[in-house]
Amino acid sequence: MILLFPQWQGANRRDPIVRGTDTLNNYYGEQITHRIITEKHTMVTNNPIKNYSAIYNQTLRCRELLKREQPKKLYTIGGDCGVELMPVSYLNERYENLGIIWFDAHADANTPASSVSKNFHGMPLRQLCGDGDDRLGQLTFSTVKPEQILYLGLRDVDIPEKEWISKKDIFVSPEADIAAITATLRKRKVRHLYIHFDVDALDKTAYHHSLLPIAGGINIPHAYKVIKSLEKEFNVVGTSLTEVVAASQKELKPINAILEILVAVLNL
């Protein structure tokens, strides 16, 4: 399944996210098999998470779709990083020994209590691990263990996230060292992989059409090489692309190789 999930409410930034998902929709065209309908407006709630009602409703729609279609493999095109809640928890339930490769400049590991912004795109991994909003937690298909997570490109982390990563001894490789990644996955007996790819994992000098571009990070050829090497060693069952804000095909061109390999590794 190739799923377009143009959620913007998790980042609380409508125009750039909608622009980026529209551009990706045009790029992939008929390859996209399913789409999540997103809210045009948001409702004020007493939940600390901004735009909570829209996020909850959209997450529920995604849950219902996956439960109905039961895809064996899944490529999710976002949208903000909050779109990951259902795809990851669904595939984590379906496959034992799932490793989660998280290409991202940010840890996405705040809770509603620790988050300063209260934007959900900074919370999905922590929510997946069972820490977060109770109602969203009830929607997830499964709970992820911190030792399943490997951070690549990570370099802009909040203090509560640093404390959690350190306490849980989560793998972090800002430079995405292939040998260290592979050795860790083998040691943890991982057989299947989910690859989350937020384009801000890339150095902004290499690609700046991301929602939150950050200096440093991974160059495009190396990111491609990492994904290719993982495909050779493990069964990739899910991939995603998030927080692209490109306004045209020209602005996508530098990452065309990434756009293609995220589909190709699934052998759909």
Describe it.
There is one protein chain. With 268 residues, the protein is α/β, with parallel strands linked by helices. It has one domain: Ureohydrolase domain (Arginase, Chain A). The protein contains ten helices and eight strands. An eight-stranded parallel sheet has the order 2-1-3-8-7-4-5-6, sandwiched between helices. Helix 1 links the parallel strand 1 and strand 2 (34-35).
Brief sketch in words of this structure:
With 268 residues, this protein is an alpha/beta fold. It contains ten helices and eight strands.
Give the topology:
Layout: E1 2-5, H1 14-28, E2 34-35, H2 52-69, E3 74-78, H3 85-94, E4 98-103, H4 124-128, H5 134-139, E5 149-152, H6 159-168, E6 171-173, H7 178-187, E7 192-198, H8 220-233, E8 235-242, H9 249-252, H10 256-264
Parallel strand pairs: 1-2, 1-3, 3-8, 4-5, 4-7, 5-6, 7-8
Helix pairs in contact: 2-3, 8-10
* Strand residues, percent: 5-15%
How many strand segments?
A: 8
Radius of gyration: 17 Å
CATH topology: Arginase, Chain A
Kindly report the oligomeric state of this protein: single chain
Largest sheet, spatial ordering of strands: 2-1-3-8-7-4-5-6
Number of domains: 1
CATH architecture: 3-Layer(aba) Sandwich
Large-scale geometry = globular
Biggest pleated-sheet summary: 8 strands, parallel
What is the CATH homology-level superfamily? Ureohydrolase domain
Kindly provide the name of the CATH class: Alpha Beta
Q: Note poorly predicted spans.
A: none
Task: List SSEs in N-to-C order.
Answer: EHEHEHEHHEHEHEHEHH
Number of helices: 10
